[in-house]
# Entry
Amino acid sequence: MDNETFSPCPDAPVLVIGAAGVDIVGTLKGELRLETSNPSQIRTSFGGVSRNVAENLARLGQPVRLVTVVGTDHEGDGLVREAGLAGVDICAILRTPDWPTGAYLAVVNSKGERQFGLDDMRAINTLSPEYLQEKADLFKEASMLFLDANLSKESIRKAITLAQRAHIPICADPTSTALANRLRPHLSKLYLITPNSAEAGILCDQTIDPSRRRQAMAAAKSLVSQGVKIAIVTLAKFGVCYATAETSGFVPAIRTEIVDPTGGGDALTAAVLFALLNGMPLDDAIRLGVSAATLSLRYPSAVVPDLTLEKLYDKLVI
# Structure
């Protein structure tokens, strides 16, 4: 698809392809002490970048189809059931007996900052190029493709090829510094990309200090020079930089208590996609995304369960 000719089509579903799993997040009550048990509050909920984006979109009223893989286990049963109840089309979710449902384990300090994270997303490797080819009609029916870099290199390539054949815009999240390079060969085909500062640094071969707005803006512009239509670089508590071939800008973060940082970036991405599909200008779309991230940070789960467009406007950055 020619990124310049994107025509919003909010009535058609967004096709979301990527990881889903169970989040286990422990919030420390004090300083982290190694080689011993640390008092903390531990919560579990369903997560995964693509699952989070899909649920956020559904709760905002956007039709959305999720293509992911979960195990034939209790966790997989619950994830599929809850996604369906949230309004996500779950018909193309694959179940595998070979691997457990994905899991993400994070340790967060008392300030709400992630100390480290572990993930086990082996199940997503079952999502093969052949399976995506079988679902080619889903691409033809979609308004947009969103994928995360948990997919194998081969499946990323196949998904992008099918989206190009269907003439729909392609949006992607690099997911982590370990996975970001999977998107590097495809930057020229992307309508939108949403890396954080560390992931943007990987894609642009530079080190980015999230407190240095100029560095983040340079990275966003570098991604655009590599063919991305819209580059959004998230800087956590420092805000968001964005760039296109015609414009660039910065939106500050909204000061807020951070209960759980898991899912904040996914909420931002979903709100931006929703806004663009509904014809909002990019500046306004980014502000809506920052509002969504702020709401997510205040909630002890990856997705705010009562998310609405009205709630986003209540917290909108002027």
User: Anything to note?
Assistant: The first helix runs from residue 49 to 59.
